[in-house]
Design a protein that fits this description.
The chain has 194 residues and is an alpha/beta fold. It has 4 helices and 9 strands, in the order αβαββαβαβββββ. 23% of the residues lie in helices and 46% in strands.
């Protein structure tokens, strides 16, 4: 009878751990209500301000977009929540409504981008830069051992050395570039580098 209970415990323990590992993270959103009127006022079509920018890092631009978000109180709280989650383990999201107030623009072949028709206010800009890099190196593929004998057949030395092979490898880096910029007056043109 003891054998059966031990077997049952052995079977149940892995199932319990498997269920715990598959928990979905709790979704966190800012507590501040999203101010649709303030967001519309910043990115309204009647604006006279422009942001001209340049992505500072060369990239193959797999994601060739720059995103612009109006920095309402809701969005600033969102950034604070993301900043506190240093390990990136929490699911922190904007509401669908707040996310719909972003503006996207394409990155040119030279890394340039532009946002027109903005009004004075603070804006958050971000893009992802994915770079594919090539590296050269050597890897050990074996060992060569040499044994030396004298004229009488007695071993007088032994040594070994690594057998190396040249190799070439590819790797990717993925970096998020972001900046907050403030437009202070109508008609202002901001030049920046991400």
């Amino acid at each position: 009878m003891n054998t059966r209970s031990i077997g049952l415990v052995t079977i149940l323990v892995p199932i319990v751990f498997q269920l715990q590992a598959q928990k979905t993270p709790k979704v966190i959103s800012p507590n501040t209500p999203f101010d649709k009127v303030a967001a519309e006022a910043m990115i309204g079509k009647d604006g006279t301000c422009t942001i001209n920018g340049l992505v500072s890092k060369k990239s193959n631009y797999m994601v060739n977009l720059v995103e612009l978000y109006p920095c309402t109180d809701y969005f600033l709280e969102f950034l604070e929540l993301k900043k506190k989650d240093k390990k990136g383990k929490k699911a922190i999201y904007l509401s669908d409504e707040a996310f719909s107030y972003r503006i996207l623009t394409m990155i040119g072949a030279d890394g340039s981008f532009e946002f027109k028709g903005l009004n004075p206010g603070k804006y958050y800009l971000q893009t992802r830069v994915v770079q594919t890099k090539v590296g050269n190196g050597e890897k050990q593929v074996g060992t060569e051992t040499t044994t030396t004998y004298n004229g009488y057949g007695v071993q007088v030395g032994q040594g070994s050395r690594a057998i190396m092979e040249k190799t070439r490898y590819l790797y990717q880096t993925d970096e998020n570039l972001a900046k907050i910029v403030e437009i202070n007056a109508n008609g202002q043109v901001i030049n920046l580098t991400l």
